Amino acid sequence: MGLLHALVRQARPGDEVREFHGSLRWAEFLLERSGGRLRPGDCVEVGSDSIFHGLGDWVFSGVLYDDPGWGTGRLREYADARGVFVDTALAMRPHAAEFIAESATRVLAADPDVVGFTSTFMQNVSSLALARELKARRPEVTVVFGGGNCDGPMGHALHRNHRFVDHVVRGEGEYALPALLRHLDAGTPPADVPGVCWWDGEVSRANAETRRTVAPADIPSPDYDQWQAALDASPVREYVHPKLVVEGARGCWWGEKHHCTFCGLNGSSMAFRAKPGERLWAEIDRLVRRHRILDVVSVDNIIDMAYFRDFLPRVADSGWDLRLHYEVKSNLTPDQLELLGRSGTAHIQPGIESLGSRVLDLMDKGVTGARNVRTLRECENHALTCSWNLLYGFPGETADDYAPVIEQLPALVHLQPPSGAHRIQLERFSPHFTDPQLGFGKRRPAAMYQHVYDLPEGELDDLVYLFDTEDAGIRGPVERRLQEAVARWRAGHPHSRLLFEEDGETLLVHDRRHGRPPATHRFTGWRAGALRRLEDGRTESALLRLLTADGHDVRPEALGDWIRHAFSLGLLFRDGHTYVSLPTWDEPVRMPEGAGVGG
To answer: pLDDT value at position 589?
Structure first.
């Protein structure tokens, strides 16, 4: 919303722009109406964490369809069959109609000519419900939708199935929205605005989308003044930890070359573009000074590698105590991860996805399991919180791809675990979706949409983002073993350590991992050198060559015996013929999960 605000003010300086932060107002409304029982954390649980079950949308479906009980039976059947907790969503729904009515009153009090909705993930039904109410009260108001939920065929389906939505902007809005507003001023149909949907009488027209992407120079710096004012005046303020959201790049430079098979992000705009690091730092500098907030979240799908030269060093040298969040590729070097830590980056999403090289090949990730384990270890060394998911269910994977990984997970308990082991779901725009030959030939809109939308399946085919398919890859006992092993990893991680310490020429390894007796292992000579050399990941033959070059006299048989011994102690991770050292050099402070506050 900050981008759209800045865009309209820049393109149309004579216009007045007002913002309505529906998510913030919904949290306030529930807190008040429930007497404090429904808190902002519950809004996150239902509106964000339940994305794969549609709970946030279902809460407002009854308002959209003028039936307070609409979809409740289907939701209960869905939840019972899958063990999904829905009590919080059920408690919220009785408040939805009054909230939409009050929201419409607030929006119309500004006497708007145009009301724009930006919708991503589970913001569709609440936005549609409010749009419907606005048009019922004041038909002359023009309603425009945009955002991630409107990309490609989804935008046209949303438009043609909801007559009260006047226009939909599909794709990026920097060029299309000002052009659409000029047509609204002139009273002419926007037939020449790429990607826009509009009504030609009672016929929904969808203009062809453009291949032209928005240049970084044309992406405005966001305006958060009205958001700040709304938050500062809100009773919700004491429950949240606000963060500034910035954008350095759009698209994905890896996806341009090798689109990860399961990923539907970026939709129709994969082309990678990035602002110069100097400009990004100037934007952050301005926003931090203006809003006095040091937590900064980048929405980039992948960091521009140039930022390691022209952005992160500026942040590191600024002396500011920033806390940055970035999505990165998992094959960063230790020096790059060190710079991230030094710059104040506290949280990264490195897209690890798996620790098995063959499964990573099936994803087209361009990285190995050994490299991903190195990344997890280096995150410990540089105090980087690392969020990742362990994904499975890829066509062509087998139990043999997972067995050696599952067997080694107990040795990784000191490294940051995934959020869980999750079967992939088919996402629109992903290679799995666009190319049925990759293994998901049979697909249908995900079952959750049956309790979200009152539309025929043919329309849902175009409207929705997630699809159900026949399960691929592992299942049964191997799937259960994987999930159970990850659950044990998560349970044992908080109190597990595996630390290097140098004592003169002796290399000590202090093992305090869950599930193992406490021990300290001592290594000297070539054995200490071998453990250090394996920090970068080596095959046995490569390690022998390096040790020989280092001046050590090592027999191949002795090295093989030592590797097997170190592996038996859980000091090494094996990925095919490659071995990686697992001990870390640093012991970061760990917060118990859930101890922080969200925002």
So the answer is: 76
Q: Which of 149, 4, 115, 128 is nearest to 64 (CA)?
A: 128
Residues pairing with 413 in the sheet: none
DSSP, residue by residue, 326-339 = EE--TT--HHHHHH
CA dihedral 444, 445, 449, 454 (to 10 degrees): -80
- Residue 472 sits at φ, ψ, to 5 deg, of -115, 170
What are the E-state strand segments in 27-181?
114-118, 142-146, 167-169
Q: Give the start-end residues of each E strand in 258-354.
A: 273-274, 295-298, 323-327, 345-349
The pLDDT score that the predictor gives to residue 131 is: 98
Give pLDDT, residue 300: 92
Which residues of the chain fall below pLDDT 50? 596-599
DSSP helix/strand/coil, 595: coil
DSSP 535: G
* Residues 6+ away with beta carbon under 8 Å from 405: 354, 355, 356, 369
What is the DSSP code string of 420-435? -EEE--EETTSHHHH-
**Strands 114-118 vs 142-146: parallel, antiparallel or unpaired:** parallel
**What is the pTM assigned to this prediction?**
0.93
Sequence-ordered list of residues with C-beta below 8 angstroms from that of 40, at least 6 positions apart, any chain:
27, 31, 236, 239, 240, 598
Residue 591: predicted pLDDT = 67
The pairing of strands 497-503 and 506-512 is antiparallel
How far from 180 is each of 172, 210, 440, CA to CA, in Å? 13, 15, 38
* 17: exposed, middle or buried (Cβ count in 10 Å: 0-12, 13-18, 19+): middle
Burial of 441 (0-12, 13-18, 19+ CB in 10 A): exposed
Rg (CA), the chain: 26
Question: From CA 358, how far away is CA 360, in angstroms rounded?
Answer: 5
Q: Where are the beta strands (DSSP E) in 282-374?
A: 295-298, 323-327, 345-349
Look at the block and give the residue holding tokens 């990165």: 328
Pair 161, 455: CB distance under 8 Å: yes
pLDDT for position 593: 58
In whole angstroms, what is the distance from residue 447 CA to residue 54 CA? 10
C-alpha torsion angle, residues 303, 305, 307, 313 (rounded to 10) = 120
Neighbours of 589 (CB within 10 A): 5
Q: How far apart are CA 132 and CA 97, in angstroms?
A: 12
Question: Is the C-alpha dihedral spanning 509, 512, 516, 520 positive or negative?
Answer: positive
- C-alpha distances in angstroms, 88 versus 43, 50, 85, 233, 505? 9, 11, 8, 26, 59
Nearest-angstrom CA–CA distance, 468 and 71:
19
Residues 6+ apart with CB under 8 A from 510: 497, 498, 499, 501, 519, 520
Distance CA 125, CA 170 (A): 18
Q: Residue 341's Cα: distance from chain center in Å?
A: 20
Reported as a single tens digit per residue, the pLDDT across 488-514 is: 999 999 999 999 999 999 999 999 999
